[in-house]
Amino acid sequence: MAILSQATTGDATAFDQLADAQESSLAALRRVQPPAAAREHHQRSVELLERSTRLLARLEDGLLNGNIAALGELSAQAEQMKSQAEGLDWLAAQIRQRAGSD
Questions:
Q1: What is the pLDDT at residue 93?
Q2: Which residues contact 66 (CB under 8 A, 6 or more apart)?
Q3: Going by C-beta distance under 8 Å and a sequence separation of 6 or more, which residues neighbour residue 87?
Q4: Which helix (H) or strand (E) holds 1?
Q5: What is the mean pLDDT of each run of 10 residues along the chain (102 residues)?
Q6: Could you give the C-alpha distances from 86 to 18, 39, 79, in angstroms and in order?
Q7: What is the pLDDT of residue 1?
Q8: Which of 1, 15, 75, 82 has the fewest CB atoms within 10 Å, i.e. the most exposed one?
């Protein structure tokens, strides 16, 4: 909860650190050359991490700048992302299952 505590005082340090970590992870994920069987999973993972990065930026804007409209939209976006993550989990299980049956 330190990130929220800092944000309420106008300190964006924790947000900046988290955003840097996400950007680094995204760059590393983009460098991965997945095997054919995992390409769809990889692409969807990149897209989800991109959405997550944008969501974090909107959360930061909402908290630090009092942008209530931005905060109001985040819950629905987070739920969509949760569904996408669950879809990725299912896809990963399918890839593992196919790999095990070869």
A1: 94
A2: none
A3: 44
A4: none
A5: 72 88 96 95 97 91 80 87 96 92 60
A6: 23, 17, 11
A7: 59
A8: 1
